[in-house]
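Message: I would love a firmer grasp of how sequence relates to backbone shape in proteins. Thank you; the sequence and its tokens follow:
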Amino acid sequence: MENFTMLQFFEWYYPADGSLWSHFRNEANRLKAIGIDSVWLPPAHKGMAGDQASGYDSYDLYDLGEFDQKGSVRTKYGTKQELIDAIKAGKEAGLQVYTDIVLNHMGGADEKEVVTVKKVEPENRNEFISEPIQIEAYTKFTFPGRAGKYSDFVWDYQCFSGVDYNASTQETAIYSIQNQYGEGWQDVLDLENGNYDYLMLSDIEFRNPHVREELKRWGEWFYETLDFDGFRLDAIKHMDPEFYNEWLDHLRGKYQKEFYTVGEYWAPYDLPSMIKYIEATDRRVSLFDAPLQGNFFQASKERSDFNLCTIFDNTLVQVDPELAVTLVENHDTQPLQSLEQTVDEWFRPLAYALILFREAGYPCIFYTDLYGSKYKDTGNDGEEHEITLVKLEGLERMLYCRKHIAYGLQTDYFDHPNCIGWTRQGDEEHENSGCAVILSNGDDGFKRMEIGAQHAGKVFVDYLNNVQEEITIEEDGSADFKVKGNSVSFWAVKTV
């Protein structure tokens, strides 16, 4: 088996200049060459903010940058044809392409409707704080720019379970729509705020069978239009898991294709709910390891006060490695974003070592760690901040080490709070494979570790160039492997 690595090929502040699809097309061959195997692309459809929209504000799922809607033809990332060309180039380069699916909510409706609702207590969504009242809600989507092409389905208030704006009074609140499919929220696993079905905008009503059938038809059209390999599912903790069970089974059955799927159930400190989701979806969906990312964040802040032996405690990769997608950052955790939980720069090489060089988990690299980023935005303090994210020096070397060297039986040496390590003995399929990895969040250190007698007499060097000296493996297959303070070293066979 070959080690696989995913890349999130965008970040929140990627310029809204329509260039991302072309950028991916131009980069595809290089990405494959440096050790990337799959790429997660951002939402492809038109959002309510037109060519400025990230796509997480879904307006028209059928508009991939083809129709003049919301003030533009193209999306933030480019045109429909540029997207088709980019995915084709990615697949020709040998990459798997995953598309971002945003089906929890829609925004930017074309018309208002008079809708019967109940106002909801925001801190406890199960508590209604009004009798049924009528409001004007933006809940009718007719997509005039598309004029019925691909689908003539009209979304109205019967397709939504909640909204957050009364246009007649200009009041913002959470309103539960009283439609024929239910008077309250749908059952979701996350119990934050009592029931976290409602997240934002117009919340899609999955109890409506017409909605489910339309989204299946859209899924077929989307796949047949783009020919991708899998999905990243947005905001799944706010959705009834039964919907994606039905939707994925339909597409997998119709096309007899795996459609690898990873979901965003973002609960950094609630692993039990993530496990419940895996059970509720009968292991159909992998999940991003939000608890591990939370541990990385804490470790980077606490520095030497953090016990590295506990870095995998209460994480998905520890309890269910088969379904864990491990990550250091994403577009939501980056500075000034909604789930900001940024791993400090000094710890990022250590975090990447912990996801790239071990046998468990499917690692996902973040765009800014490969390309860097510079942007301005307003923070929670109301002030504008200029952010510079420096690309991670040595990341391509780490990807090389994962792809070619980090194989074989793993032995852990998690026996010191500030210095941990592990060895991989190597395998017969990968020439010169086998490694010793050592991390420190404190002072310079060393650790005696065994890598296997088959390596006796071999000279090992640090492929990350943090320690310059060489180490010779002793007769019993062990050696003292060194590491600099606040650093990581990857020791493997010297080949030149």
About this structure: The mean pLDDT is 97.
